[in-house]
């Protein structure tokens, strides 16, 4: 058996492919705002998001205890970078992104994103200059073509997320291909049971 050689990576940051999302939040100066992050995941009705502790988003999400997570696709690359690079600005206006307010949170749902989550803060943990926001998902909405008529099936094979990967020295965006593999087909006797 051939063993692959491993080497240590000397970097402070390592992104091994995380979906890019736009956080929407209430802002005292501009009423509503948005920021870009690639540090988020969900488990059941819980979501965890990581952002810089000294950011405007961290200050206002900590203050108002609610936010939205909006998942963009490739046609919003300029907007993604505006929301990521211009701290302290009115990024929703600067990027010209239309939005509506959440049903359960007073935060912007970005209309051009194909998936949005309304979230309430449960806990905030600060570590090494970053905060991890643990939230409860109050509502999930998606473009109609991604959801079955009864609202119970999310057709993830139709979504086109943008992934962020790299290290301290070089970071890039990666895009999904149209190729999908059904859950359970790679194991003999496996089934595709999402329940």
TrEMBL record:
Q: Which domain of life is it from?
A: Bacteria
Which SUPFAM superfamilies does this one have? FMN-binding split barrel
Sequence ranges assigned to domain Flavin reductase like in this UniProt record: 45-141
UniProt xrefs under Pfam families? Flavin_Reduct (PF01613)
According to UniProt, the name of this protein is Flavin reductase
PANTHER family the record matches: FLAVOREDOXIN, FLAVOREDOXIN-RELATED-RELATED
Q: Which cofactor does it need?
A: FMN
**InterPro entries recorded:** Flavin_Rdtase-like_dom, Flavoredoxin, Split_barrel_FMN-bd
Q: Which family does it belong to?
A: Belongs to the flavoredoxin family.
Q: State the UniProt keywords alphabetically.
A: Flavoprotein
């Amino acid at each position: 058996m051939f063993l692959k050689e491993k080497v240590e990576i000397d970097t402070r940051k390592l992104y091994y492919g995380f979906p890019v999302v736009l956080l929407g939040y209430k802002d005292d100066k501009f009423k509503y705002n948005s920021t870009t992050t690639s540090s988020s995941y969900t488990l059941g009705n819980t979501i965890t998001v990581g952002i810089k502790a000294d950011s405007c988003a961290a200050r206002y999400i900590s203050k108002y205890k609610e936010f939205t997570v909006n998942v963009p696709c490739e046609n919003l690359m300029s907007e993604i970078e505006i929301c990521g690079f211009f701290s302290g600005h009115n990024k929703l206006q600067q990027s010209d992104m239309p939005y509506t307010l959440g049903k359960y949170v007073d935060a912007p749902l970005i209309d051009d994103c194909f998936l949005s989550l309304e979230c309430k803060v449960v806990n905030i943990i600060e570590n090494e200059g970053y905060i991890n926001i643990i939230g409860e998902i109050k509502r999930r909405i998606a473009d109609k073509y991604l959801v079955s008529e009864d609202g119970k099936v999310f057709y993830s094979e139709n979504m086109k997320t943008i992934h962020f990967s790299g290290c301290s020295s070089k970071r890039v965006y990666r895009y999904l291909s149209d190729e999908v593999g059904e859950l359970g087909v790679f194991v003999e006797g496996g089934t595709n049971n999402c329940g």
